[in-house]
Amino acid sequence: MSSYQITLKDRSTERVDGADAYQQEGPMTTFFRTGSGRDLVDTWSTRVASYRTAELLAVRRLEPTAPVMTERAPHHEADRRPGCQASTTGARARAILG
């Protein structure tokens, strides 16, 4: 789902999350969630937010971004040293079981 960043006449910005489309309705600009992959505003669309059109300077669509994958840090200091066993769970289990 997309978001929009709007710039108001006083140069402040606001973010409208969860909206897929917007359109002017009289003196207002209304943002909608259309749902189910529909690209047009219809009777099934849900109003998310409305602003006075005269107060808007710009409307910019923000596309969703994929999360960035990062490398996990080792859990134990022993994980960083070659040849060292990071976990002793296996050794404990062998000692308990016989």
Task: Provide structural commentary.
With 98 residues, the protein is mainly beta. 9% of the residues lie in helices and 37% in strands. β3 and β4 form a beta hairpin. It has one helix and six strands; from the N terminus they run ββββββα. The mean pLDDT is 80. The protein has a domain at 3-62.
Please outline the major beta sheet: 3 strands, antiparallel
The best one-word shape is flat
Number of helices: 1
Unreliably modeled segments: none
Average pLDDT, all residues: 80
Tally the beta strands: 6
Radius of gyration: 26 Å
Strands across the major sheet, in which order?
2-1-6
Distance between the termini: 56 Å
Strand content: 35-45%
Keyphrases for this structure?
flat, 1 helix, three-stranded antiparallel β-sheet, 98 residues, mainly beta
Quick rundown:
Helices cover 9% and strands 37% of the residues.
